[in-house]
Design a protein that fits this description.
binds fe (ii) ion, mainly beta, 5-stranded mixed beta barrel, 161 residues, 3-stranded antiparallel β-sheet
């Protein structure tokens, strides 16, 4: 009786290895003695993640029934940021990209471009500093090399006005 109860309690939870991720399910390998299972991944509202194979999945099972499980957490220590201080938060991926909310401010790191798409424009309430050029009009104009009409005739180059 007690042994059976203990066994059922142990079956309530499972930690396994992610084998494959589908739309809303994850194929998880829990133990060597248990078949791989395709289990629903209960994502939290507002954040959608697609884990890589070999991440660890934590699942709970209804009444210990291993046929009725749901993955509640996926952990992948291979990519966990290591430099965070207490209280800090970040979103990160396997490529090294991240958005970090740290005690020094917010840092965004992309391995390619960063695209802003907005119906009503983008507003900054402070000076914008760039280590590179600034382009406008789809790239047709650049801050460093643009010209202005010269009232004396012709055009003047950037820096004169
Ligand atoms: Fe100008």
């Amino acid at each position: 009786m007690f042994d059976n109860l203990l066994r059922r309690i142990k079956l309530l939870f499972g930690v396994g290895t992610v084998r494959k991720v589908e739309q809303d399910t994850i194929v998880v390998d829990f133990t060597e003695g248990e078949l791989e299972k395709s289990i629903e991944f209960a994502q939290g509202y507002g954040l959608q993640v697609t884990p890589l194979a070999d991440a660890k999945a934590v699942a709970i099972f209804n009444s210990g029934d291993r046929a009725q499980g749901i993955v509640i957490k996926v952990v992948d220590r291979r990519f966990t940021p290591r430099q965070q201080k207490p209280g800090e938060v970040s979103i990160y991926d396997y490529l090294g990209q991240f958005v970090a909310l740290s005690s020094d401010g917010i840092e965004i790191n992309s391995i390619k471009g960063i695209k802003f798409t907005s119906v009503e424009g983008v507003t900054f309430n402070q000076t914008i500093t760039s280590d590179g050029n600034v382009r406008s009009n789809g790239g047709a104009n650049t801050l460093n090399t643009h010209t202005h009409p010269d009232p004396q005739g012709g055009k003047t180059s950037a820096g004169s006005g």
